[in-house]
Amino acid sequence: RTEAVPQVAGQVEALLTAEGLDIEIRTWRELALFHNQVVDLFGRELDVIKIIVAAIVILGIANTIGMSILERRAELATLRALGVGRGSIAALLLLEAAMLGLVGGLLGIGTGAGIARIVTAIGIPFPSPPGSTRPFEGGVDLVPEVVAFAFGLSLVAALAAAVLPICRVLRRSISDELR
C-alpha cells in the first residue's frame, strides 16, 4: 500500500543499518520531482474547478430558493398579518432551505456514487506508466471526506442562499405584499 511506503522504507533502512551497511533508502516519491510538480499543479487546478462548481451550485440553489420565496410573498404577508412573527417565518423558510439542501445533497451523493460505480465497473484505460510495460485500468474511488464535503456544501449553500431572499421578503411591509 502506498501509505505504508515511508514506514517500510524506515524498516528496510533500519535492517540495513543493523547489518552494518551504509545505504540510504529513497522512495519513488522523493525521486519523482516532475511527477510531484504535476500532481501539485493538477491539485491547484482542481481547487479552482471546485470553487467554480461551488459558485454555480450556490447560485443555482439561491435562484431556486429565491423564486420559491418570492412566489409566496402574499402567503408570507398573510401569515404576518395573522400575527406570526418575523422570526418564526424566517425559521420556517430556513427549515425549508435546510430540507432542500438535505434532499439535494443526498440525491447528489447517490447519483455521484452510482455513476462512480458504473465508471469503475467499465474501467478507465490508462497507458502504461513510466517504468512499466503494461497498461492498466483505473476506476473512481469514493473518498468519505470528499463525499462529506459535498454533502456539507449542499446544506450550507442552501442555508446561505436563503438568507438574502428571506431578509428581503421580511423587510417589506405587509400591505405592500398583499396588494
Give a structural overview:
10% of the residues are buried. The longest helix has 39 residues. The chain has 179 residues and is mainly α. The protein is elongated, with a radius of gyration of 27 Å. It is built from seven helices and two strands; from the N terminus they run H-H-H-H-H-E-E-H-H. Helix 3 runs parallel beside helix 6 and helix 5 runs antiparallel to helix 6. The chain has a two-stranded antiparallel ribbon with strand order 1-2. The mean pLDDT is 88.
Features:
179 residues; mainly alpha; two-stranded antiparallel ribbon; 7 helices; 76% helix; elongated
Radius of gyration: 27 Å
Distance separating the two termini:
68 Å
Low-confidence stretches: none
The order of strands across the largest sheet is 1-2
Helix count equals 7
- What's the story with the biggest beta sheet? 2 strands, antiparallel
Structural class: mainly alpha
Kindly estimate the percentage of residues that lie in beta strands according to DSSP. Answer: under 5%
Form type: elongated
Mean pLDDT rating: 88
Strand segment count:
2
Helix-strand string: HHHHHEEHH
Helix content: over 70%
List the helices and strands and how they pair.
Blueprint: H1 5-18, H2 28-31, H3 33-71, H4 73-81, H5 86-122, E1 124-126, E2 136-138, H6 144-171, H7 174-178
Antiparallel strand pairs: 1-2
Describe this structure in a few short sentences.
This protein has seven helices and two strands. With 179 residues, the protein is mainly alpha-helical.
